Amino acid sequence: xxxxxxxxxxxxxxxxxxxxxxxxxxxxxxxxxxxxxxxxxxxxxxxxxxxxxxxxxxxxxxxxxxxxxxxxxxxxxxxxxxxxxxxxxxxxxxxxxxxxxxxxxxxxxxxxxxxxxxxxxxxxxxxxxxxxxxxxxxxxxxxxxxxxxxxxxxxxxxxxxxxxxxxxxxxxxxxxxxxxxxxxxxxxxxxxxxxxxxxxxxxxxxxxxxxxxxxxxxxxxxxxxxxxxxxxxxxxxxxxxxxxxxxxxxxxxxxxxxxxxxxxxxxxxxxxxxxxxxxxxxxxxxxxxxxxxxxxxxxxxxxxxxxxxxxxxxxxxxxxxxxxxxxxxxxxxxxxxxxxxxxxxxxxxxxxxxxxxxxxxxx
Length: 363
Fold this sequence. Notes:
Layout: E1 2-3, E2 6-7, E3 11-13, E4 20-23, E5 34-37, H1 40-48, H2 55-72, H3 76-87, H4 94-107, H5 112-151, E6 157-161, H6 177-185, E7 190-195, H7 202-214, E8 218-221, H8 226-231, E9 237-240, E10 244-246, E11 251-254, H9 257-267, E12 271-274, E13 280-281, H10 287-290, H11 299-302, E14 303-307, E15 313-317, E16 330-333, E17 340-343, E18 346-348, H12 352-358
Parallel strand pairs: 6-7, 6-9, 7-8, 9-12, 10-13, 12-17
Antiparallel strand pairs: 1-2, 3-4, 4-5, 10-11, 11-16, 14-15, 17-18
């Protein structure tokens, strides 16, 4: 994808051939800072602090973190230490464990002298796979928007999304935004309702930034406005991403997704979830009972960061002094509320039978 005409991926190896570059997403949309990571501890902190975020991107960046660790020490003990360090950063996104497991499987039985080159090659393969997977997700989701346009050719197609599931959350293209980008590029008059996505405002900051840079018409709305828009026929469909999908089709995504799904069901609005294969957790059945939900710091709820009129980036408190705050980062939308899943292999119902129909080769 492009920013002001310049193509970017969300993670790449620098011109020196070994250090890793990422976009600091905590600085967007106010400024474009490109960070250089040179060791696994920096990668872990970048993931923990959400300088990189989005389940597929976390996995790809963590894979490069393993490669950086092995440059310093290619022993088996160092490999396991790096995997443990990186694996402890974010608990909900299954892609993190998937990518680290793939790195372990590729590297563990190699002689230490061969591990560094193999680690970089495997990390690149993970990144390339994610980019192509997201492109295919967009291709399989595009017909949903084409069908709506065919029903109302003189009107725009209104899509509501929650959090950020665009190219900033993946290596390229995005999951939920990939069909939107492809529809826009195909000439479909698509318009996106962008939930602000409190408490970190990934919608207002990141999704709006992405869509604006690509020229996609969009409007930022307060999180609680979605149901109202659905009641008045202003939403044709919802598409969201996800950090983990159970084998039965339950979906963990940014906090507030469940409420959007309830509103969509009440108003007859299709609710689709876009995901890559790496987001499916075949070991978990009941998402509400079994998916670990990350609890983040209270300051994300009590404080807000933004740009002042004179251009300064400032953080201010918005909650009453002395009031505690709870901050569950995700919620789980049961499969019964999900119209269907959009994957790189096609679309299916949110159920074990639906997923197995696309992934018969899964464990």
